[in-house]
Amino acid sequence: MREWESHVRKVTPYTPGEQPGSFPGMVKLNTNENPYPPAPGVRKALEELTPESFRLYPDPAASELVDALAEYYGKDRERFFVGVGSDDVIAMAFQTFFNSKEPILFPDISYSFYSVWAQLFGIPYRRPALDGEFRLVKEDYFGENGGIIFPNPNAPTGLYLELGAVEEILAHNPSSVVIVDEAYVDFAGPSAMELVDRYDNLLVVQTFSKSRSLAGLRIGFAYGQPQLIRYLNDVKYSFNSYTLNLPSLKLGAEALKDKAYFRETVEKIVATRERVKRELSSLGFHFPDSGANFIFAAHESCPAGELFQALRKEHIYVRYFDAPRIRNYLRITIGTDEEMNKLLSFLKAYLKR
Ligand code: PMP
After folding, report:
1. Which pLDDT does position 279 carry in this prediction?
2. CATH class of domain segment(s) 49-255
């Protein structure tokens, strides 16, 4: 080891799902992207951008997007914070709110980026185990802690936690900030946004990457009472003033305008998900009852690692986590009906051998 290396901050990074490029015949069901294009207005807004628009810095306050969110949700603009995907928003929230000596809490099976950020920022953490059916045990979050974060629906299980349980966790934690990561909530039940009026320690984080088909633009946001948002902005402005680029601000704002298109694509994905659940069951798979745009499935006899490789050879990409408790599961993103049919016919043939 060279001398300077002893001063390097060494971290084990998060491993994102593979982005194998795109080629005809490939079925990409590994990173929970939306199989449908963004709202049609996004194309128009894109055509209005010129190279000249990139000459200046973007608005550091991201007002166009913040205002669009405020209007969409009918809430004050002071309650919104935007960032470069919800990854950026959550990382910023870790730095801002998780600053105690007590460990922060998140489930043993959940978004694997949480432990990476905790390690990067030197935040102690503990991971209470989900129960045998992958359900979050709310009582595990009632004791002393330095903060709480969990995805709802959870990832990669897909299970949605009823708002009553979320509220109980909040009620037991007036001294901590509780972050509910709602990357997939549009495919599930009501958002915890409705609890923000009553809990000044609740931060709800959402993304444009899934239900709004804009993973490539990297847009995420947080919703909370103005005091939380001010603290977040103080950290953001101490880090990088211009987090969101100009196309993301404009196209993101545009995507919010078309409520009918949004509802239609979300409903299509949910309908496909429910059909795929029935088909997977009949093929011998079992899975938690997903409320997200993916299904976390294990087969009764064929190991997930083997299926993952067999699918990959056919250019059908799903996600496999070689981790305790979940190494027999595949996380399968809901694609178009046609894509899901390809997956199902392959599985049918493969499992019959
Ligand atoms: N939270 C969860 C639970 C996720 O699965 C993801 C997607 N990887 C994210 C946050 C981050 O999504 P993005 O940065 O694209 O908004």
Report:
1. 98
2. alpha beta
